[in-house]
Amino acid sequence: MCDRHAPSATRRALLARLGAGGLLLTPLAAALSGCRKGDWPEGMVEIKWDRDTCVRCSMVISDRRFAAEIRGGPNNTVFKFDDVGCLAFWLRDKADKYPWLADPATRMWVADFNSKSREEMRWLDPKRAHYVTRTSPMGYNFAAVAAPLAGALDFTDMRQHTLAKGK
Predict the structure, then answer these.
(1) N or C: which end of the chain has fewer CB within 10 A?
(2) Please, what's the b/e burial string for 36-64 (b: 16 or more CB within 10 A of its CB; e: otherwise)?
(3) pTM
(4) Are 67 and 61 in contact (CB under 8 A)?
């Protein structure tokens, strides 16, 4: 009598080859899962370029030169921005809702305008960065750089200019 559910010799050989192939690919998959594009600072959540959106204006974050991120609070909440101007307004507008924004443990990053590429990003502390005039995605027109340049503003002055401009 023949059992319809018993695998044939050919089927068993195919399943054995597929299983062996899967075992060979498992270490490769595990190794690749640890790889990340770019050099993200400790604690920063990767920005998925052209997919993540700004928490303030809902614009897709595409231009890496102006991106920013905040992470903090009891749940390590993450907020991403497409323009440092959006960051400035959001800090002002959400201070009451998120009192942890003033906590020194809250982490913030802004992209260094002079980073070479999306894969070689440098991230700066916004409060220590210097801000130069550059055309930005939302028209606030400030970009963060690491070294002071002629005419550059500090974080406080950049925020004041941005908030005074409005939007």
Answers:
(1) N
(2) eebeeeeebeebeeeebebbbbeeebebb
(3) 0.74
(4) yes
d(CA 162, CA 167) in angstroms, rounded, equals 9
Kindly compute the dihedral angle of the four CA atoms of residues 12, 18, 19, 20, in this order, to the nearest 10 degrees. Answer: 110
Q: How many CB atoms lie within 10 A of CB 129?
A: 28
Token duo for residue 79:
């907020």
Q: Bridge partners of 123?
A: 111
Could you count the other beta carbons within 10 Å of the beta carbon of residue 21? 10
Which pLDDT tens digit goes with each residue over 40-77?
899 999 999 999 999 999 999 999 999 999 999 999 99
C-alpha distances (whole Å) from 50 to each of 59, 79, 147 are 9, 16, 28
Element (H, E) at 71: strand 68-72
Res 118: pLDDT: 75
